[in-house]
Design brief:
Elements (H helix, E strand, L loop, with lengths): L3 E3 L2 E2 L16 E2 L8 E8 L2 E9 L4 E4 L1 H4 L4 E6 L10 E6 L3 E3 L13 E4 L29 E6 L15 E8 L1 H7 L8 E4 L16 E6 L3 E12 L9 E5 L4 H8 L4
Antiparallel strand pairs: 1-15, 2-5, 3-12, 4-5, 4-7, 5-6, 6-10, 7-8, 9-10, 11-12, 11-14, 12-13, 13-16, 14-15, 15-16
Length: 262
């Protein structure tokens, strides 16, 4: 039986999940190429888990609910591609400043979205910049056929046992939900968005959860359209689509909890 897995990577995994996520066979990112990308080292009791996230303002990070729902706090790494860089900037955020979607359903990986509020505004530079959200006028855009860019520090192959130190990314076409859902027994809904990976061995993988899926707009630049959510337990290189939380489905919720609107 094929099982699905959420894509957080337990530096020590806290709990088994029916779903999984990471960047396999990706390319190394250039410094400043993904200035909105953040790394999240989550405190879960006496264990740690690793996820990604995206800056959407100088105080707000958007990530996956399955990364944060059990977290007692999180160390946020910003402004670097190397998560072991001794000069990296790390900000601790307490549980009180983590907002998980009220209708998050862990067993079904539904409403897989959360917002982290930093304790103070951060300063932007060429390595630290927010990513644009879709405009509310684009709420009904499917993005089918557009090229999506996913990034993260997740496992770089199915043979690896831990996340990588250096940020990587893949480029893959966004596919329709009906085709994507056939891979997962109908478990892909309107609030999710998928990328096609068949025949490429490239996908999101363990440790990429909560990280960004963006499309490039001629006026806006990178626009955040998805958050890495889940894949298949048979392997990140299996050719199954990568599944993301669809940002356009949660614009009102994001505005309510961050004040950010486009």
């Amino acid at each position: 039986m094929k099982v699905f897995v959420a894509l957080a990577s337990l530096l020590v995994v806290a709990a088994a999940s029916p779903f999984e996520g990471r960047i396999t066979q990706g390319e190394l990112a250039e410094p400043g190429q993904f200035p909105y990308q953040v790394g999240l080292s989550l405190h879960i009791k006496d264990k740690r888990a690793w996820c990604g996230g995206s800056l959407i303002s100088n105080r707000h990070i958007i990530t996956a609910a399955h990364c944060t729902d059990s977290a007692d706090g999180v160390d946020v790494t910003i402004g670097t591609n190397d998560i072991k860089d001794p000069e990296r900037q790390v900000i601790y955020v307490s549980k009180a400043n983590i907002k998980v979607h009220e209708k998050w359903i862990a067993a079904l990986i539904k409403n897989d979205i959360a917002i982290i509020t930093l304790p103070a505004p951060i300063r932007f530079n060429k390595y630290i910049q927010p990513v644009a959200l879709p405009k509310k006028s684009n709420t009904y855009s499917s993005y089918d056929g557009q090229e999506g860019f996913a990034s993260g520090w997740g496992k770089i192959s199915d043979k690896e046992t831990s996340v990588t130190d250096l940020l990587r990314f893949i480029e893959a076409p966004i596919m329709g939900n009906s085709a994507c859902s056939r891979y997962y027994g109908g478990n892909v809904g309107k609030n999710q968005i998928c990328i096609r990976t068949k025949g490429t061995h490239k996908s999101t993988c363990n440790g990429d959860s909560g990280g960004p899926l963006v499309v490039h707009d001629l006026k806006e630049g990178p626009v955040l359209v998805g958050l890495t959510s889940f894949g298949t337990s048979i392997g990140c290189e299996s050719g199954f689509p990568g599944v993301f939380t669809r940002i356009t489905s949660f614009l009102d919720w994001i505005e309510k909890n961050s004040g950010i609107s486009y």
